[in-house]
Design a protein that fits this description.
Distance between the termini of chain A: 57 Å
Radius of gyration of chain B: 27 Å
Oligomer: heterodimer
Number of strands of chain B: 30
Number of strands of chain A: 5
Strand content of chain A: under 5%
Largest sheet of chain B: 5 strands, antiparallel
Low-confidence stretches of chain A: 1-5, 11-47, 74-78, 358-422, 446-461, 473-484, 515-546, 549-568, 731-762
Mean pLDDT of chain A: 69
Strand order of the largest sheet of chain B: 14-15-16-17-30
Strand content of chain B: 35-45%
Mean pLDDT of chain B: 93
Structural class of chain A: mainly alpha
Largest sheet of chain A: 2 strands, parallel
C-alpha cells in the first residue's frame, strides 16, 4: 500500500509538469508492463487521500476487466497506443515517439520561450562544471572547532567586567552571595507574607478597594507621590542651609548678649563710637549714591527727635531720676548719671543738620569748620602742656557729637528686626542663595579659586582622605592594567637550611650579611620628577656664589664696645685698634676660605672613580728592570671609569656634603624602587603616612587596615555564580561586551571580502 | 572674692555602665607624636619576626591508608569531611575535626584514580584501574548492610580522571578519550578524541560550567565545550601537564601543573602564551588546587614539598614540608579558605594551615584589629631589606635546597649560552624569547 501511494504522488508531479507543456493528445488509459502496478486514475481524485479507498475498489475492478481483455494479446502490441485525441490527463508515458526523429530538444519543448530564456538555457548547457569535492573531515572539524571556540571565548569574556571589578575592589568578602546581616527592612519582610485565612483575605480586599497600601505598608500612594515630588538632595541642601543659618544666628545672638553683659563703660563707649563711625560712613555714602534712602534715614532721625521731645523719658521726672536728685547732693556718681541723662535728651532733641535738608546751615557750618575742632577745645582744656590730655579731650568731643546719631541707628535696627522676625528663615535662606550664586559665578570665573574653595571645604577630612587615597592608589598601581599581562611582583623566597623558631633567630637573620644586590648605591632619581627642574632653577637663584662672596673684602662691623671705665675714655680708640690687630695677629696664618675650598676639592677627588691600569709589563715588549711599558700600551690598557654621579654639594659652594654611605642606615634603606611605584617620591610618601591609631582616628585606622580578603569562619565559599553579573553596574557591562563581539566578528568578515576581491582580480 | 573652680560635665567622662569603654581623649597633633615612620618601621619589623616565630603550619596527619594516597576529594557541602583514595583501591572518608577515619571501603581493584563528590553531597563517584565508574552513597551503610555501590558502570578502557558538573547530573571521565556521562545512563552521552592516546586529568570549569579542560599525554591541554560535538582548542607545551585547575573566581583563567617543575597560568581565550610562569619547585608538579577565593593556589610536587603561590606571582609565598612527607601526589585547599590537605606517597594525609602564622579559633575584636594593622604594616614595609629578609626566609630540606641551587646554576648557564649564541650570530637571527614564550610549542585549532 505504501508503495502504491508513493507512486501516486510521483505521478501527480509528472502530470503537473506535463500540463505546462503543449501536449494535446493523451491516451485514455495507460497500461504498464507490470500488471500488478498497472492502474488508471484520476489525478483530481487521487489528490485526496481520503478518497483513496473508494478508488481502490474501482481499480480492482478495472484491473480485472483489463486482465480479461488483455488475455491472448501480445505484450508488445499492447504497450503503446497512438494518441488520437486531446485529453486532460497527460501521462509521461503517453509520449508518442512514432514518426519523430528521436531526440527531444529543450528548445522544442519550450518554443514560446523568449530569446533571453533560450540564451540562458544555452549558457546552462555550456557551463557544465563539476561540483567541488566536499571538505575533508579534518578540515570540517577544524572549522567546527574554530567556530565553537570563538563562541565560547565570547561567552567567557562576559565575565571580564566582574573579574576586573573584583580585582579593583578594596575588599572582597567571601562567600560572595551572602545576605546582608542585620535586621531587614520592614517592607521586605511584609512583602513575603500573604493572606491565608478568609478573614485576612476579606480585610485585604477592603484595603485594596480603598487603595490602602498592602505591599509597601509604610507609605500610602499619596505619601509616595509627595516623596517623589520632593527630591532628597534638595531637601538635604535646604536643611543644611537652615541649620547653618540658625547656627550663625544663635552665634550672633549669643555674641550680642555677651556684649550687652559687659559692664565696662569704656568698652561700650568705644564700641558705640565705632558703630557710630560706621553708620556715619554709610550715611555719607548713601547721600552720594542713594539720596532718597538717605532722606528717609533723615526722616527717621527726625521722627526719633520728635518722639524724644514728646516723651519725658530722659527728663528728670522719672522715679529713678527723682531718687537720683535726692542723692545728688552727696553722691558724685548720681550727679554724673543725671547729667548724662540730660545730655542724652539734649542730643536727641537737637535738630539734625545735613547737606540734604539745609544748605544754608551748611554754609554757616563751613565757617566754623575752617579751624579744626580740637584746636579750640584743647585750649579750653586745663592743662595745655600735657599732650595726653589734649588728645583725650578731642576724643570726648567727638563722642558727644556722635552720640546724637547713635539712637537713630538703634531705632532703625529695631524696625528692621521686627520685620526679620516674621520671616527670618526666608531671609536667611535668600542670603545663602545669594552667597551660593556668587560662589558659582566665582567658580565660573577662575578655576584656581575653585580649587582653593574645595581645599577649604575638604580641610577637615583631609588627613583621613589622603591616607585612604594613597592606599587605594597603591592598590591601583599593583593592579594589572590588562588581564593579558600579569606583572609578577613576587620575589623568590630566601630559602635556607635554618629555621626561625625564636625572636633571636629572626634577629640573627637580620644581622646576617645582606646579599650583594642590597649594597647597590642609590642614585637619586631626579629625572623622574617633574618638579625637580623648577626647583633647581629657584635654587640657582638663591645660591650665593661662594667665590664671589669670600674673595671680597669683608666689611668690618664696628660695634660700639661697652665702656668699661669712664676714666680711660681717651685710650679707648687705641685699645680698639689694638684688639683688632691682636685678632689679626693671632689668625695671621689662617686662610680659612682657601682651606675649606681645598678640603672640598680633596673630598671630591677622593669620591671620583679612578681608572684602572691593566698593563702588564713584558707582554709584547721588552721587559726588565727599569723598563716602563710604552705609553701606547699604557693608554690601551687603561680602563676609564664611568663618570661619577654629580655630587650633592656640587652647587653648594659653602657646604661639604659627605657622600660616604652610612652602612648602619643603609641596612634599613630600600635600595631599588619597588614594583608598583613610578618614582621614589611616590614610594616615600607611601612610607611617610602613618597608619596606626597613634596618628589617626579610629575610623581611619579601620578603613586603612581593612584586610583585602575577608572570609567567614566555617562557611563554604562557592565558586562564582551567575548572580555576580547582576552586581556589576549595567553600563559597565554594556560598554565592554560589544567591543569584544565587534572585534571577533569584524575580522573574519573583512578577510572574506578580501579573498573575494582577490579572486575577482584573477 | 569669687573663686573660680574647674568643673567638668560628668556626661563627658562618667560611663553609664561599667561595661562601657572608657573614653580616652586623644590629641592627634602630629607634633606630639613624632618619629612616626621609624616607630611604624619597628612595629613592622617586630610583626614580621613574630609572624615567622608563630609560623607553625602543620596541624595533623591522618594515617590509615595502607598504600600511597592517590587522590582526594572535598565534600561539597560539609567542611569537615574529606574523601581519599589510595593506590590499593581503598577509599576512606575522614572527619577532619576529629581527625579520624569515619568509613573505609574497598572501592576498586588497583588504584583509585579519581573521586568526586556530587554537588548535592549525598553521593560520590569513583573511578579506578579496574575500568569501572562507581557511584556510592555518602551515608554509611546500616548495620548488617554490605558496602555496595549505588551504580557501577563498566567501561571499555581504564579511567584516569573524573570530575562532576557543578549543577547538573553530568560528569566527565578521561582515559583514552574524554567522556561526558549522564548519571542516568550507562554509556557516555558524548566522547571527545583528538588524536591523543590518553588523558591524565579532566576538570570542569566551576564558573562557566559547561566548559572543561583536560591534560593529555602528548603534552597538550585540550579545551572542550560540553554542548559541542568537537573539542575547542589545544595547546601543546614542551612537557606534559599532569593536572590543571580552573580559577573559581575568574571564568577564563586556569593553571596547569607541569612536569618541567613549573606551573603555568593561562587565559583560555589566548593559549599562545601563558599569562604567568610560576616556578620554585625542583621536581615535577603533580597536583594543583585553587583556593576558593581564587587569589592563591597550592601545588604538590614530586620534590616532597607543597608550595603556595599567589595567582599573580611567579614565585611561591610559602613552602611546606616535613621530614616524613614523601612525594606529594594530591593536594586540596579546603572550601573555607583556611586549610590545605595533602596526600602523599607514604600513606598519610596531612592537614596544614593555609596561612602559616594565623591563629586558629575565635579571634577577639582587638586581636583582629591588631593583626589587621600588623598585616598592613608588613605590607607597607615589605620592601625594606631587613623586613624582606626575615619575611621571606624559609627552611628547606637539604635535598631541595641543593637541587634548587643546582637548577639556578643550570638556568644561568643556559641563559649565558643563549646570550653567547646571540652574540656570535647574525643580529636578529636568535631572537630573545621570554620565559613565557619558551614553553608553548604550538596551539592547534
Amino acid at each position: 500500500m505504501g508503495k502504491i501511494m508513493k507512486k501516486k504522488v510521483d505521478k501527480i508531479k509528472a502530470n503537473k509538469e506535463e500540463d505546462i507543456g503543449v501536449f494535446t493528445a493523451v491516451p485514455e488509459a495507460v497500461r504498464y508492463d507490470d500488471d500488478v502496478e498497472e492502474e488508471d486514475f484520476d489525478p483530481q481524485l487521487s489528490a485526496d487521500e481520503v478518497e483513496a479507498e473508494e478508488e481502490d475498489d474501482e481499480r480492482k475492478r478495472n484491473k480485472l476487466v483489463q486482465a480479461i481483455s488483455s488475455m491472448g494479446k501480445g505484450r508488445k502490441s499492447s504497450r503503446l497506443e497512438e494518441r488520437s485525441e486531446a485529453a486532460l490527463i497527460v501521462s509521461e508515458f503517453g509520449v508518442n515517439s512514432v514518426g519523430e526523429s528521436g531526440k527531444v530538444e529543450l528548445s522544442d519543448l519550450i518554443p514560446s520561450a523568449t530569446k533571453k530564456a533560450q540564451k540562458q538555457i544555452e549558457t546552462l548547457k555550456r557551463g557544465r562544471r563539476t561540483l567541488e569535492t566536499p571538505l575533508s573531515r579534518q578540515e570540517t572539524e577544524r572549522i567546527h572547532r574554530d567556530v565553537a571556540f570563538q563562541k565560547v571565548s565570547e561567552e567567557v569574556s562576559k565575565w571580564k567586567s566582574v573579574i576586573k571589578q573584583n580585582q579593583r575592589s578594596e575588599q572582597l568578602v567571601f562567600p560572595l552571595n551572602q545576605e546582608p546581616s542585620g535586621p531587614k527592612a520592614i517592607e521586605h519582610v511584609v512583602t513575603g507574607w500573604k493572606s491565608q485565612t478568609p478573614l485576612e483575605q476579606e480585610i485585604f480586599a477592603l484595603l485594596n478597594a480603598n487603595k490602602q497600601p498592602i505591599h509597601n505598608p509604610v507609605l500610602t500612594p499619596a505619601e509616595e507621590e509627595s516623596i517623589k515630588a520632593m527630591s532628597l538632595v534638595e531637601a538635604k541642601i535646604r536643611r543644611a542651609e537652615l541649620q547653618k543659618a540658625r547656627a550663625i544666628q544663635s552665634y550672633y545672638e549669643s555674641k550680642t548678649r555677651r556684649e550687652r553683659k559687659i559692664k565696662s563703660k569704656k568698652y561700650h563707649k568705644v564700641h558705640n563710637k565705632a558703630k557710630r563711625k560706621e553708620f556715619l560712613k554709610q550715611f555719607d555714602e548713601m547721600v552720594k549714591t542713594n539720596p532718597e534712602a538717605a532722606l528717609e534715614e533723615l526722616k527717621k532721625l527726625e521722627l526719633g527727635r520728635m518722639k524724644e521731645r514728646m516723651s519725658l523719658k530722659h527728663q528728670n521726672s522719672g522715679k529713678w531720676a527723682k531718687s537720683k536728685v535726692i542723692m545728688a547732693k552727696y553722691d558724685e556718681d548720681a550727679r554724673k548719671a543725671m547729667q548724662q541723662q540730660l545730655e542724652i535728651n539734649k542730643e536727641l532733641t537737637q535738630k539734625v543738620v545735613t547737606a540734604l535738608n539745609n544748605d544754608e546751615e551748611e554754609e554757616e557750618e563751613k565757617e566754623e569748620e575752617v579751624l579744626p575742632d580740637f584746636a579750640n577745645d584743647a585750649e579750653q582744656a586745663g592743662d595745655s602742656t600735657n599732650p595726653w590730655m589734649r588728645g583725650k579731650l578731642t576724643e570726648e568731643e567727638r563722642e558727644n557729637k556722635e552720640v546724637s546719631e547713635m539712637p537713630v541707628e538703634t531705632v532703625v535696627i529695631e524696625e528692621e528686626s521686627e520685620e526679620e522676625e516674621v520671616n527670618e528663615d526666608e531671609v536667611l535662606l535668600k542670603e545663602f542663595e545669594n552667597k551660593r550664586q556668587r560662589r558659582r559665578e566665582a567658580e565660573n570665573k577662575t578655576d584656581e579659586q575653585d580649587e582653593e574653595q574645595e581645599d577649604e571645604d575638604e580641610e577637615d577630612g583631609m588627613a583621613e582622605e589622603e591616607l585612604s587615597k594613597f592606599m587605594s592608589m597603591i592598590r591601583g598601581l599593583s593592579r594589572k592594567p590588562e588581564v593579558e599581562i600579569i606583572a609578577d611582583n613576587s620575589t623568590p623566597l630566601e630559602e635556607g637550611l635554618s629555621r626561625i623558631q625564636t625572636m633571636e633567630d629572626a634577629e640573627n637573620l637580620q644581622d646576617a650579611e645582606m646579599p650583594e644586590s642590597d649594597v647597590v648605591e642609590v642614585v637619586p632619581q631626579e629625572e623622574h620628577t617633574g618638579i625637580a627642574p623648577a626647583k633647581k632653577a629657584k635654587k640657582r637663584k638663591r645660591n650665593i656664589e661662594l667665590k664671589q662672596v669670600l674673595t671680597k673684602e669683608s666689611k668690618v662691623v664696628t660695634v660700639p664696645l661697652k665702656v668699661t671705665t669712664e676714666e680711660a675714655e681717651d685710650e679707648d680708640l687705641e685699645e680698639e685698634i689694638d684688639q683688632r690687630g691682636l685678632i689679626r695677629e693671632a689668625f695671621a696664618g689662617d686662610d680659612v676660605v682657601s682651606d675649606f675650598l681645598k678640603e672640598k676639592r680633596n673630598q671630591e677627588n677622593a669620591g671620583k672613580p679612578k681608572s684602572v691600569n691593566l698593563t702588564l709589563p713584558g707582554w709584547g715588549e721588552w721587559g726588565g728592570l727599569g723598563l716602563m711599558p710604552s705609553r701606547k700600551k699604557r693608554k690601551k690598557f687603561r680602563v676609564k671609569a664611568a663618570p661619577a654621579a654629580p655630587r650633592r654639594d656640587a652647587k653648594l659652594p659653602e657646604v661639604i656634603m659627605s657622600e660616604h654611605r652610612d652602612k648602619s642606615i643603609a641596612l634599613h634603606q630600600v635600595n631599588s624602587l619597588p614594583f608598583p611605584f613610578d618614582n621614589h617620591i611616590q614610594f616615600e610618601s607611601s612610607i611617610r603616612c602613618p597608619m596606626g591609631r597613634t596618628w589617626n582616628s579610629e575610623k581611619t585606622v579601620q578603613k586603612v587596615t581593612q584586610p583585602r580578603v575577608v572570609t567567614q569562619l566555617g562557611a563554604i565559599i562557592e565558586p562564582m555564580g551567575r548572580e555576580e553579573f547582576k552586581k556589576v553596574p549595567q553600563a559597565n557591562q554594556k560598554a565592554q561586551t560589544p567591543t569584544v563581539t565587534n572585534q571577533r566578528n569584524g575580522q573574519p568578515e573583512r578577510r572574506h571580502k578580501h579573498v573575494q576581491k582577490r579572486k575577482k582580480h584573477k | 572674692m569669687k573663686v573660680k573652680v574647674l568643673s567638668r560635665n560628668p556626661d563627658d567622662y562618667v560611663r553609664e555602665t561599667k561595661y562601657d569603654i572608657q573614653r580616652v581623649p586623644r590629641n592627634y597633633d602630629p607634633s606630639l607624636h613624632p618619629f612616626e615612620v621609624s616607630r611604624e618601621y619597628t612595629r613592622a619589623l617586630n610583626a614580621t619576626k613574630l609572624e615567622r616565630v608563630f609560623a607553625k603550619p602543620f596541624l595533623a596527619s591522618l594515617d590509615g591508608h595502607r598504600d600511597g594516597v592517590n587522590c582526594m576529594a572535598k565534600h561539597s557541602t560539609s567542611l569537615s569531611s574529606l574523601l581519599s583514595g589510595s593506590c590499593d583501591g581503598e577509599l576512606k572518608i575522614w572527619n577532619l575535626t576529629k581527625r579520624e577515619c569515619v568509613r573505609t571501603l574497598q572501592a576498586h581493584e588497583g588504584f583509585v584514580r579519581g573521586i568526586v563528590v556530587r554537588f548535592c553531597g549525598t553521593s560520590f563517584f569513583t573511578v579506578g584501574d579496574d575500568k569501572t565508574i562507581k557511584q556510592w552513597k555518602m551515608q554509611c551503610p546500616g548495620y548488617g548492610e554490605e558496602e555496595e555501590p549505588l551504580n557501577t558502570i563498566l567501561g571499555k578502557t581504564v579511567f584516569t580522571g573524573l570530575d562532576h558538573h557543578r549543577t547538573e547530573g553530568v560528569f566527565a571521565t578521561c582515559g583514552q578519550q574524554v567522556d561526558i556521562w549522564d548519571e542516568q545512563r550507562s554509556s557516555p552521552i558524548r566522547s571527545f578524541t583528538w588524536g591523543v592516546d590518553s588523558f591524565s586529568s579532566v576538570r570542569f570549569n566551576p564558573v562557566e560550567t559547561d566548559l572543561l579542560a583536560s591534560c593529555a599525554s602528548d603534552r597538550s591541554i585540550v579545551l572542550y565545550d560540553m554542548r559541542e560535538a568537537t573539542p575547542l582548542k589545544k595547546v601543546v607545551m614542551t612537557m606534559r601537564s599532569n593536572t590543571l585547575s580552573w580559577n573559581p573566581m575568574e571564568a577564563y583563567h586556569f593553571t596547569c601543573a607541569n612536569e618541567d617543575y613549573n606551573l603555568y597560568t593561562y587565559d583560555m581565550r589566548n593559549l599562545e602564551q601563558p599569562l604567568l610562569v610560576h616556578m620554585d619547585h625542583v621536581s615535577a608538579v603533580l597536583d594543583i588546587d585553587f583556593s576558593p577565593t581564587g587569589k592563591e593556589f597550592v601545588s604538590a610536587s614530586f620534590d616532597k614539598t607543597i608550595r603556595i603561590f599567589p595567582k599573580d606571582g611567579g614565585h611561591s609565598r610559602e613552602v611546606y614540608h616535613t621530614k616524613r612527607m614523601q612525594h606529594v601526589i594530591c593536594v586540596k585547599w579546603s572550601a573555607d579558605n583556611k586549610y590545605i590537605l595533602s596526600g602523599s606517597d607514604e600513606m598519610n594525609i596531612r592537614l596544614w594551615k593555609a596561612n602559616a602564622s594565623e591563629k586558629l579559633g575565635v579571634v577577639g575584636h582587638r586581636e583582629k584589629a591588631a593583626t589587621n594593622y600588623n598585616q598592613k604594616l608588613k605590607e607597607k614595609f615589605q620592601h625594606h631589606p631587613q623586613i624582606k629578609r626575615i619575611a621571606r626566609h624559609r627552611h628547606l630540606p637539604k635535598t631541595v635546597y641543593h637541587q634548587s641551587k643546582e637548577i639556578r646554576v643550570m638556568r644561568e648557564a643556559r641563559r649565558r649560552k643563549e646570550k653567547n649564541v646571540r652574540k656570535h650570530s647574525k643580529p636578529g637571527s636568535v631572537p630573545v624569547a621570554t620565559e613565557r614564550e619558551k614553553h608553548v610549542v604550538t596551539v592547534v585549532k
